[in-house]
Amino acid sequence: MSAPFVEATNLTVGYDSDAGRVRAVDGVSLTIYRGETLGLVGESGCGKSSLGRALLQLLPIESGSVHFDGTPLQTLSRRQLKALRPRMQPVFQDPIAALDPRMGVGDMLGEALAVRGDASPSRIAALLELIGLPPDAASRRPHAFSAGQRQRLCIARALAVEPEFLVLDEPVSALDASVQAQIVNLLVDLQRTRKLTYLFISHDLGVVAHLATRVAVMYAGRIVELGPTEAVLSRPMHPYTRALIASLPARSPVNRGQRVPLPGEPPSPLRRPPGCAFHPRCPLAIPSCRTDVPALESVGFDHSAACPVVSSK
């Protein structure tokens, strides 16, 4: 495997809320390799979006480090970080919130293209063609487009600065199934032609199965399983991953058995239980799970899980 392209080491991210201090990301170490898609999955509130934003330095980190192509981002000045930002871009879930309703599409894309020095009408038209929209889309405003087309515009704006790494934060979750498939196929084509690297954040394991090279499963701010997509989804080792797959509809291509609802509720990020945070919901919990935080340990080739029960087998 190639050298790490994006690397987080013991990353911790927190923020203040009305109810107290929230630790959204709790000591995560993660590596993303150039040209791959790493899928990041987990229930709502587990810290996926906070981790993605921290990798882009859009959220401050409390401790740990983030390296991008060998550069430690937390040591850069504001000016140095600004110069690096075109190489790493976000695409968020809600395109309505991400697009300025007062700007025409041509002006919006031209503003982004100007970063690379060419905001000509022909360049704008080429960018629109790349994401499957006609040249006359440049004269319209975001509200004139469908939800899927607006997400294409968000992707186009990110691509305008010629990035190498995209954090795709639930980019298809608000779309119906047929439009989801179109956007996912677009992302696959763009990755191949532009040699992009993706962090694809989603709660939809079916989409992740189609797109991701590897999968990281997140629970209560920590990575509990990590490995090749086929291995994680067909041979899940952590009890949470198994429960997550079993909770999908029985007709899902990922869930090959009966639908089994995931028991209980995720813990509050304000009051996480000691030890393994999943132990109150886990059918395999042993006494040490209530006191010790398990580390990721190998359970197969390039496959690891943070569970003392499965790693000891």
Question: How would you sum up this structure, described in words?
Answer:
The protein has eleven helices and twelve strands. The chain is α/β, with parallel strands linked by helices and 313 residues long. The protein has a domain at 4-101 and 163-267: P-loop containing nucleotide triphosphate hydrolases (Rossmann fold, 3-Layer(aba) Sandwich). The strands form two sheets. It has an eight-stranded mixed beta sheet with strand order 6-7-8-3-9-10-12-11, with helices on both faces. Strands 2-1-4-5 form a four-stranded antiparallel beta sheet, with helices on one face. Strand 4 and strand 5 (71-72) form a beta hairpin. The radius of gyration is 20 Å and the shape is globular. The protein starts with a strand and ends with a helix.
What topology emerges from the helices and strands here?
Blueprint: E1 4-17, E2 20-33, E3 37-41, H1 48-55, E4 63-68, E5 71-72, H2 78-84, E6 88-91, H3 95-98, H4 105-113, H5 121-130, H6 147-159, E7 165-169, H7 177-194, E8 197-202, H8 205-211, E9 214-219, E10 222-228, H9 229-234, H10 239-246, E11 297-300, E12 303-305, H11 308-311
Q: What's the CATH H-level homologous superfamily of the domain at 4-101 and 163-267?
A: P-loop containing nucleotide triphosphate hydrolases
Q: What fraction strand?
A: 15-25%
| Helix-strand category | alpha/beta
Query: Helical proportion?
Result: 25-40%
Assign the CATH architecture of the domain at 4-101 and 163-267: 3-Layer(aba) Sandwich
Mean pLDDT: 92
Largest sheet: 8 strands, mixed
Per CATH, the class of the domain at 4-101 and 163-267 reads Alpha Beta
Number of strands: 12
Please, how many helices?
Answer: 11
CATH fold annotation of the domain at 4-101 and 163-267? Rossmann fold
Q: Choose one word for the global shape.
A: globular
**What is the N-to-C order of secondary-structure elements (H for helix, E for strand)?**
EEEHEEHEHHHHEHEHEEHHEEH
